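Sequence only, no structure available. Ideas?
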Amino acid sequence: MTVLTKELYASLVYLDRDFLAGRYEIQSGESPHSQVTKTQTKKAGAAIPIFSAEVSAVETRAYPISTLEMLAVVLPVLEAEPRLAPKQFEKRMSSMLGWVDGYLSTLTVSMSKKKPGTDDYVSSEEQGYFTLENQAELKLALITSPDYFLSGLDTLTKMHKVAVRDLAIPVRALVRVIAAQSHADQWIRHAGE
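Reply:
I predicted one. Tokens follow.
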């Protein structure tokens, strides 16, 4: 069995267990014990059936090993994924999976709406999110799940502008970039990969 090094474990910031379990299943050929639960909801009001199935399914998977053991097994194969460069990103591209180096940071934004019939604007509540940037013009806005951050780092978005002034954690990340950009010209990427 491959062993995860103490250094790698100490340097982990974010680990998408769902992505990791899927890659482990593909690579090892081991199927987990799984259970699929279907739920159906009734929404108030009319819904157009073609756009609203109102049925969803949740899959629960159970492996006999931990996610850290899975990472130790899968990481050598993940290391072969290509390095991504900003010049590769374009509108209407397929999603791209690969490695990037940069600095993990936070950004806080709020939307402004014009009040109907007036010249006044109303700002919405501020929301924080994580970004990944480097000197090579890489700008990524991250889609994250709080549960995947290690050591409670997800709270940094709430602390931005209050207690955190400058945040720039150097990281190497496996990311999936999708063909969408934020209003700050950042490419959108899923943080879990």
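The radius of gyration is 20 Å.
Hope that gets you unstuck.
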